[in-house]
């Protein structure tokens, strides 16, 4: 309870999050800052590899990510799902197909995130498990750029479901019904083992765990995601 922290309502909070978390963390921070206007925030949004580098340098109080590095001593708490789905332009033929075998993906032009991306690691792991080799048509360093490339007709991709809300609502992009998808992942909030969290960081951690379901609920799609 925040009341436990009475008197500690100023200070600085340093957060670093992976790219897919930027779709809900700013809203969470908004509510937090309204409650505690004297707290200064620094929010870094970056990919998995750069986040790990920040961890090694002990640059932040808290981290939000999907694949906690196994070689680091971290306090971890899983708090929400972060599924990865196959995305295409809604007018493409695949958007109407049902229950496609994963092998269909290797016929498609694929748009991939940069090396160092956690999304990419998860995709490569699944493809190597199923011995799929895909033709990477284009490599792009941001989820937003990938969405634009899909809209521009350059290919298909695999992205966190939470990056897609508006394009799905507008009917511009579609989630493809492909076997083995979604790739089920979680968001974790993490901090370094042995680190004494500041009072402000503890307050934000509690706020995150209590409130994030509401904000992520807004990102959940009205269009059902194929599940099996
Ligand atoms: P990424 O991480 O931006 O490094 O792909 C996102 C995620 O792992 O969900």
TrEMBL record:
Top-level division of the source organism's lineage: Bacteria
GO MF terms held by the record: DNA-binding transcription factor activity; transcription cis-regulatory region binding
Family: Belongs to the LysR transcriptional regulatory family.
Keywords: DNA-binding, Transcription, Transcription regulation
Keyword Transcription: yes
Residues of the signal peptide: none
UniProt key word DNA-binding: yes
Species of provenance: Zarconia navalis LEGE 11467
Protein's recorded name: LysR family transcriptional regulator
